[in-house]
Amino acid sequence: MPCNTLRTPSPHDLRQDDESPVAPARPQRGPWLRLLAEMLQLAGGSAQFLLHTEKAWSSATFTGSRHVIVLEFNGVEGILHGEAYVAALPEHEFTIVGQLVADAAVIAVEHHLAPHPRMTVEAQLLLLEDC
User: How many C-beta atoms lie closer than 10 Å to residue 54's C-beta?
Assistant: First the structure.
């Protein structure tokens, strides 16, 4: 069972004295903002965030999410930072509370020269809930 499952409100969740019921906890959207912050920091501050996708993932023993993040590096100096990011990402130790990064891989790199030098990096990460 996932760590952050929602429970159904019980009659005990209702307030007394004709007050409105206590709202059930909203599901959390996941750790993607913390993941993105760490990836941008790893990129050296020269990356532009382009895209994030998140899909639920589970196996017989683990629950988590698969993330794809696309960053763009502009100019010659930016591309040098991008190359360092590509080299560092697979071995980076992430510190996301309640999550374990089981896999971090660069799945695509595109280099463009026109209208200006830029590099786009697509990374895929598997995060597992750490209960």
Answer: 17
Q: What is the pLDDT of residues 47-86, one digit of tens each?
A: 999 999 999 999 999 999 999 999 999 999 999 999 999 9
pTM above 0.70, yes or no: yes
User: Is residue 43 within 8 Å of residue 71, measured between CB atoms?
Assistant: yes
Domain membership flag for residue 119: yes
Instruction: Give all strands (DSSP E) within the chain, no chain letters.
Output: 47-58, 63-74, 99-112, 118-129
Q: How far apart are CA 56 and CA 129, in angstroms?
A: 11
DSSP state of 27: P
Residue type, 40: L
Which residues constitute the domain of residue 120?
34-129
Count the domains in the chain: 1
AA identity, residue 45:
G
The H-or-E segment that residue 34 falls in is helix 32-42
Q: Which residues pair with 129 in a beta bridge?
A: 99
If you ran DSSP here, which 8-state letter would residue 25 be given? P
C-beta separation of 71 from 44 below 8 A: no
Q: What is the CATH number of the domain that holds 125?
A: 3.30.2000.30
